[in-house]
Automatic annotation (TrEMBL):
Residues 100-382 form the SAM-dependent MTase RsmB/NOP-type domain. It is an enzyme of class 2 (transferase). SUPFAM superfamilies: PUA domain-like, S-adenosyl-L-methionine-dependent methyltransferases. It comes from the Archaea. The lineage of its organism: Archaea, Thermoproteota, Thermoprotei, Thermofilales, Thermofilaceae. Belongs to the class I-like SAM-binding methyltransferase superfamily. RsmB/NOP family. It comes from Thermofilum adornatum. The keyword S-adenosyl-L-methionine applies. GO terms for molecular function: tRNA (cytidine-5-)-methyltransferase activity; tRNA binding. This is tRNA (cytosine(72)-C(5))-methyltransferase. The active site is at C322 (nucleophile).
Length: 382
């Protein structure tokens, strides 16, 4: 299936570094979700063990990760067969990939409705023709395209399914936050301390910022930067829901954030820059090219350069990506310690492999670790 989802130049690029067989296994693995769906317990409001017992008492099939106590997960079930009905709703790529694992369809993600009206049972189909779900159309088609908001399809059956907690009181009251395991591991390895000043350069939607705030016991300052007000607002909304008040939102291009913060002004930097997202699961198709990845790697280096500017001496840079692309991962780390005043430090996590080239760090590979593809490196400013 990887050859139908990914361009040949992407497969060939990864094969140069990883070997053809390994590259194809990696890419094949991201066409399906993992078997575990993770969320983070907000330890500012409750203890993971207490929430675990409470959810189990309500019949939720939930487990606690052995090495990250605030990480709980529910099993992902499937695949299930989806029928091709005459009444159809077509959705965009992002929506299709969410609906594939059980999310409902909201109006902004719909681009076409065929032979259906409110109340009809419909098939939900991706732009490349993959059946992702069945459900009930909750809005008239004209209303979907005029209002562009609201619940469009209530999904009743999807290819994969994990028990959702997003509509529960636990989510609404800020007791949980949906976040991948590698992302939680990354912030734990950074080990932010109460009272520190942390910069999150590409912060939306706020998973790492809010996790850092938990570990800092809501004491200190986290500066959450993103390029648009709408993205920063999402971070601040999540922080408010979680009861966090140390996050300050800044709308800015963080490649130049020293213009606002000044040089050597923060104790640590979290940098999860725009990337190829090859590791994000599940993928129904992928339309980026090798040249796109080259451009992204160069773009990411601009953020690394500015991270050095704002870090105090001895400060730590947490560099992460949701990809297994060597240009964006290992080779950017090589660039960081060759051209900038950064030194990678050894980090480890049980059963997770180290990156290529002997680079200190971690690489989560989906087919080995049952996670998204994810890269973690921590570098210290000399």
């Amino acid at each position: 299936m990887s050859s139908t989802v990914f361009r040949e130049d992407i497969i060939a690029y990864l094969a140069r570094y990883l070997g053809r067989k390994y590259a194809e296994k990696l890419l094949e693995s991201v066409t399906t979700p993992g078997t575990r769906y993770f969320f983070r317990v907000n330890t500012l409001k409750t203890k993971p063990e207490d929430l675990l017992h409470e959810l189990r008492s309500q019949g939720v099939n939930v487990y606690q990760h052995a090495h990250v106590p605030e990480a709980l997960f529910v099993p992902v079930e499937g695949p299930f067969e989806i029928r091709r009905l005459d009444k159809v709703v077509y959705v965009d790529k992002h929506t299709a990939e969410s609906v594939y694992v059980g999310a409902n369809v909201f109006a902004p993600g719909v681009y076409k409705v065929e032979n259906a009206e409110k109340g009809d049972y419909v098939s939900v189909i991706s732009p490349n023709g993959i059946l992702v779900a069945e459900g009930i159309l909750e809005m008239e088609p004209d209303e979907i395209f005029s209002k562009r908001r609201g619940l469009a399809v209530r999904v009743t059956r999807s290819v994969y399914k994990a028990q959702s907690l997003r509509d529960t009181s636990y989510f609404l009251s800020g007791h949980i936050y949906h976040q991948s395991l590698p992302s939680m591991v990354a912030v734990r390895l950074l080990d932010p301390k109460p009272g520190e000043t942390i910069l999150d350069m590409c912060s939306s939607p706020g998973g790492k910022s809010t996790h850092a705030a938990q570990l800092m016991e809501n004491t200190g300052e986290i500066i959450a930067v993103d390029r648009s007000k709408s993205k920063v607002d999402i971070v601040l909304e999540n922080a408010k829901r979680l009861g966090i008040n140390i996050i300050k939102g800044v709308v800015y291009d963080s490649r130049y954030i020293s213009e606002v913060l000044g040089k050597e002004s923060v104790d640590a930097v979290i940098l999860d820059p725009p990337c190829s997202a090859l590791g994000v699961r599940p993928k129904l198709y992928y339309d980026r090219s090798y040249q796109d990845i080259v451009k992204l790697a160069n773009y990411q280096r601009q953020f690394i350069r500015e991270a050095v500017n704002v870090l105090r001496r001895g400060g730590k840079l947490l560099y992460t990506t949701c990809t297994f692309s060597p240009l964006e991962n290992e080779l950017n780390v090589v660039h960081a310690f060759s051209d900038f005043r950064l030194k990678p430090v050894p980090i480890s996590f049980p059963n997770i492999k180290t990156p290529l080239l002997g680079i200190p760090g971690l690489q989560f590979d989906p087919h080995l670790h049952d996670t998204p593809g994810f890269f973690i490196s921590i570098l210290v400013k000399k």
